[in-house]
């Protein structure tokens, strides 16, 4: 990822039909493959050290999981996801700036991730019309495009340990600007590196420091 966001996405060419007697591997369940079980808190620190200032929480919601991204304890974005076999679908995004909330709902869910990851697979591309609601009022409509590419795979060292991960490049739209988001994703472990703006507005790597269950008694990166 590089900014958030999340948010979080990948490649949809994941193989052909699978059935008994065909000699093919069974389909991959995207939620387990990408480590998107609800109730997980991922904490990230800028560079190789320092306190965790970015949090990513997976929360259960009807029909799927919500990814909550926060910085210094302030929520900035929520990606509402559903699952269809090996695909992760983006149903809606919420963008938070202070007390202002922009909620963007897609007429057709966008392709967010596809399992398994592969740097040789084609781009995961999709588009959909959307409607915005801004702080409870009609915010207009338009068309959203979303594309995810796996750039490379390799071992990434973080304060939480070393992970074999895939670097993703995500190109999409957010309110009033384009987003070019890069992140490292390790199957099962989840996102281990997010490329986000620091307190001065410069984009830097936020590396995984810790992963733990979340809840009222265990806030996520509330620095």
Characterization of the model:
There is one protein chain. The longest helix has 4 residues, at 30-33. It is built from 1 helix and 12 strands. Strand 9 (161-174) and strand 10 (177-186) form a beta hairpin. The protein is mainly β. It is globular and about 45 Å long. It has one helix spanning 30-33, and strands spanning 40-46, 54-61, 64-71, 74-84, 87-97, 100-114, 124-134, 137-158, 161-174, 177-186, 190-197, 203-213. Helix content is 2%, strand content 61%. It has a 12-stranded antiparallel beta barrel. The protein has a single domain (38-213), classed as YmcC-like fold. The chain starts with 29 loop residues before the first helix and ends in a 10-residue tail after the last strand.
Quick rundown:
The chain is mainly beta and 223 residues long. The protein is built from 1 helix and 12 strands; from the N terminus they run H-E-E-E-E-E-E-E-E-E-E-E-E.
